[in-house]
Amino acid sequence: MGKHCFELRCRSEVVNDENRVVIALDYTNETDVLAMIERLDPQRCRLKVGKELFTYCGPQLVQKLVDRGFDVFLDLKYHDIPNTVAGAVSASATLGVWMVNVHASGGFAMMKAAADALKDLDKRPLLIAVTVLTSTAQSDLDHLDIPGAIEERVLHYAKLAKEAGLDGVVCSAQEAKRLKAELGSDFLLVTPGIRPSGADAGDQHRIVTPAKAITDGSDFLVVGRPITQADNPLQVLHEINTEVESSLH
Ligand code: C5P
What we know:
- The protein is an alpha/beta fold.
- The chain is 43% helix and 15% strand.
- The protein has helices spanning 11-14, 30-37, 51-67, 82-94, 108-119, 138-143, 150-163, 176-183, 210-215, 225-228, 233-248; strands at 21-24, 46-50, 72-78, 99-103, 126-130, 168-170, 188-191, 220-223.
- An eight-stranded parallel barrel has the order 1-2-3-4-5-6-7-8, surrounded by six helices.
- It starts with 10 loop residues before the first helix and ends with a helix.
- The chain binds cytidine-5'-monophosphate.
- The site of cytidine-5'-monophosphate (C5P) has 17 residues, from β8.
C-alpha cells in the first residue's frame, strides 16, 4: 500500500492489506508523540489524532505525521451546522489525512454536506461517522432520555451515514457483525474499545478482543491505552498484529 493512503481508491483496496491497527495517540505533547512514532513503522500501524492532542499541538503535528508516511485518522468528531462541518472536513483534506469523522447525531444534512465537500477532490480522506461512542452504556442513553436500545440507534445512524454518502462508521466491534450484514462489506467499520485479553478496560464499556473484532467484520481497530501505556508498546502492537493476521486468514 502506498504511503499516502488518502488517495481516493476502491474501498476493497483500502482494506486489502494487514495494516488494520490504528494507534490512538492520546498524548498531551509533541515530544511524547515523536518518541513513540520514531519506533513505529507506517506499514504496521496507522495513527489517530484526537481532540486532546490536536488542541495541544494543532495541524502542524498532523502534517509531520503525514510527512513521515503515516496514514492519519483525524478524529475530531465534527458536529455543527452543515456549512461549518463541510468547511472543517475540507480543511482536513488539505492536511493530507487518511480519514476524518463527524458525529452521525449531527444529522443527515450535516453528513451529506461533509460528503459533498469532499467528493470532487482528486485526493480525499475517507469520511466516517461516529454512531454511539463505545464508552456509552444503555443507562447513559436512558439518563439522557434518548429512547430505544443502543444497537438500534447504531444501526439507524449507520444507515443514515451510508445514505448520506459516507464511507463507513465508527462503532463498537460488538456491533460489527450486524452492521456488515446490513450495510455490506464495502461500508467500512472502524472499531475502538479493543482490548487484548486481560487488558484493563479503562472507561470503555463495549469492549472486544482484536481477533473477535476482525472475525466479526471490523476493518480497522482503534487501540489506545493498551499500546500507549504499555511497558513495551511495540511488543503489544506486534501481538495485536499477529492476532489480526491470523484472524484474516
Ligand atoms: O485508550 P483506548 O483504546 O480506549 O482509546 C480509544 C480511542 O478511540 C480514544 O482516542 C477515543 O477517543 C476513541 N473513540 C472511542 N469511541 C468512539 C470513537 C472514538 O473510544 N466511538
